[in-house]
Design goal:
The chain has 247 residues and is α/β, with parallel strands linked by helices. The chain has nine helices and ten strands. Bound molecules: adenosine-5'-diphosphate and magnesium ion.
């Protein structure tokens, strides 16, 4: 019998070097099913590098990462399985400009999952409705606002029916008036029980949605706490210093 472990992400003592540069210096993090973890930290602290190891976009050299019971080992056998379980949304939407919104969303389900076009389109339309842009299905990314493009990117990731969603500064490239519509979609995903790891500086979102907030600095995990403690009574000087710069 398959037993589902409580932790869907188990990263232990992860080290990574870019050449001589020690970018991840022994980072450990476990994420429970349905949990929302927000990662904050100064630019260059290794946040993107760390979460990109969770879907094998980055290799690591030491330590271990287990995603939903699958060990992300150095051989590449498990990468396809992992990528299907872990969706990712980037700062720069990364949509295919020459494909319509609908084609962007159905591409992976058709080619990777081998779904029929009809089945893939049916799910895509449901997802577009969910992210509030059903009427944009036949448009090209360039015809959409940034906020709409990011919602397409979220729908595209969800189309693979992932168990985990990673977000790397999903609102940082957006005009202020579009941040909210993207955060609202993320909020509803969290409410529906999606496991999420979110790199963001949106304090309001972190306070309201995160189960845990983490500070990374210089390739290490400095502090991990509930939002309430993280923002009002952090235990580490480094966290206080960081918060004084962003609050
Ligand atoms: P963050 O997301 O917290 O801003 P990153 O994970 O993007 O930080 O980067 C951490 C550090 O690693 C930075 O100093 C960055 O310059 C460096 N870095 C990122 N990608 C590479 C790469 N491909 N080669 C060499 N150094 C890199
Ligand atoms: Mg980054």
């Amino acid at each position: 019998m398959m037993t589902e472990t409580k932790s869907i992400i188990i990263a232990e003592n992860v080290h990574k070097w870019y050449g001589k540069f020690h970018v991840l210096q022994g980072v450990s993090l476990s994420v429970n099913r349905g949990e929302v973890v927000v990662i904050m930290g100064p630019s260059g602290s290794g946040k993107s590098t760390f979460i990109r190891t969770f879907n094998a976009l980055e290799e690591y050299q030491k330590g271990s990462i287990i995603i939903d019971g699958i060990t992300l080992s150095h051989d590449l056998r498990n990468i396809d399985a992992i990528r299907q379980e872990v969706g990712m949304v980037f700062q720069q939407f990364n949509l295919f400009p020459h494909l319509t919104v609908l084609q962007n969303i159905t591409l992976a389900p058709i080619w990777v999952r081998r779904w029929s076009k009809a089945k893939a389109e049916e799910l895509a339309m449901q997802l577009l409705e969910r992210v509030g842009i059903l009427e944009q299905a036949q448009k090209y990314p360039g015809q959409l606002s940034g906020g709409q493009q990011q919602r397409v990117a979220i729908a595209r990731a969800l189309a693979m029916q992932p168990k985990i969603m990673l977000f790397d500064e999903p609102t940082s490239a957006l005009d202020p008036e579009m941040v909210r519509e993207v955060l609202d979609v993320m909020r509803s995903l969290a409410r529906d029980g999606m496991t999420m790891v979110v790199v963001t500086h949106e304090v309001g979102f972190a306070r309201e949605v995160a189960d845990r907030v983490i500070l990374m600095d210089s390739g290490s995990l400095v502090e991990s706490a509930t939002p309430d403690i993280f923002f009002t009574n952090p235990q580490e000087d480094r966290t206080r210093q960081f918060l004084s710069q962003i609050l």
